[in-house]
Amino acid sequence: MSLSGGLLWHGRAWLSRALWQQTCEQISDWLHQVQPHSKELLLIGASAGWMMPNGWLQGFEKVTTWDIDPMAARLFRWRHAAALQASGTQLRCQTGDALASLANLLPAHPKACILFDNVLGQYRFHCRDVAHAAEEIARIVATVRGREWGSLHDTFSGPAQSLLPSGVIPPMHSSIRGPQSDAAADQTQLARLGAKGKWLDHLTASVFDTGTRVHHIAWPYQTHYWHCLQAGWVKN
Ligand SMILES: C[S@@+](CC[C@H](N)C(=O)[O-])C[C@H]1O[C@@H](n2cnc3c(N)ncnc32)[C@H](O)[C@@H]1O
Q1: Which atom of ligand 1 sits closest to the CA of residue 123?
Q2: 3-state SS class at 135
Q3: Do 225 and 159 form a contact (C-beta atoms < 8 A)?
Q4: Distance from the CA of 219 to the CA of which of 10, 121, 132, 204 falls in 20 to 30 A?
Q5: List of E strands, the chain
Q6: Based on the number of CB atoms within 10 Å of its own CB, is 56 exposed (0-12), middle (13-18) or buried (19 or more)?
Q7: 129, pLDDT greater than 70
Q8: CB under 8 Å to 11, separation ≥6 — which residues?
Q9: Could you tell me if the CB of 9 is within 6 A of ligand 1?
Q10: Distance (Å, rounded) from C-alpha 58 to C-alpha 199?
């Protein structure tokens, strides 16, 4: 149904569980470093939570997921509801365009923190005018200013060598956002992956303000096609 979700995404996520396992572990490590103040989570672009660890969700009293994909709510419940019931975490799964309706959604969850869960990097595929995608992403992020929020998103994706001979993906590393450190972090990641050919810019360079600590995670989306993920959390 779409370039970043739907049947294609679910099929790929299911078949790629082994290939993505180390990336999921690094995402889990990052999330467990995040100790949110809020006890309520608004999870945007949740899909079925293929890359989302139960343990982190269980720390919340209430989790509300949003995804535009009509299959996502049922699949998210299938994958996570039992664990959340065990921890006494209330779960609500909603279907709709959460990015377009964010300004209306937030007042309904005044105490929730927000996680954009691998959704902002796909925005350029959903945007009618790619030339304005970066501005639109900035507008979305401006909506959550003053709240506790985080994002995991693609920065670049493209062809690279297959899994490293050791079978181990590069370790997560962190940097402080700034023009020079961003360029250095990108170069480090691309060199580690043996990047070649043309890479796609996912237009997320300015999601986080300068000075924010960000984490860089490698994702072998396909054996010869990698994504560089960036993750960060903002406590206000
Ligand atoms: C790469 S997938 C996210 C994966 C997910 N976080 C996981 O762990 O499985 C991106 C998701 O964002 C959803 N999405 C895209 N645009 C959206 C929007 N405007 N509102 C809500 N969800 C959206 C897609 O349907 C898709 O499920």
Answers
A1: 16
A2: helix
A3: yes
A4: 132
A5: 40-44, 62-67, 90-95, 113-117, 149-159, 173-176, 200-201, 213-222, 225-234
A6: middle
A7: yes
A8: none
A9: yes
A10: 36
Tell me the C-alpha distance between 39 and 115, whole Å: 13
1: pLDDT confidence band, cut at 50, 70 and 90?
very low
Please indicate whether residue 186, judged by its CB atom, sits closer than 6 Å to ligand 1.
Answer: no
Q: First-to-last CA distance in the chain?
A: 36
| Domains of the chain (ranges, CATH numbers) | 6-234 (3.40.50.150)
What the block records as the tokens of 121 is 């990097």
Q: Give residue 86's identity as a one-letter amino acid code.
A: A
In Å, how far are 48, 65, 102 from 200, measured between CA atoms?
A: 25, 28, 27
Query: How many Å apart are CA 135 and CA 132, to the nearest integer?
Result: 5
DSSP letters of 137-167? HHHHHHHTTTS-EEEEEEEEEEE--SS-TTS
For 4-38, what is each residue's pLDDT tens digit? 668 999 999 999 999 999 999 999 999 999 999 99
- Calculate ∠ Cα 171-177-182, nearest 5°: 65
CA of 139 to the centre of ligand 1 (A): 18
The tokens for 81 are 């509801």
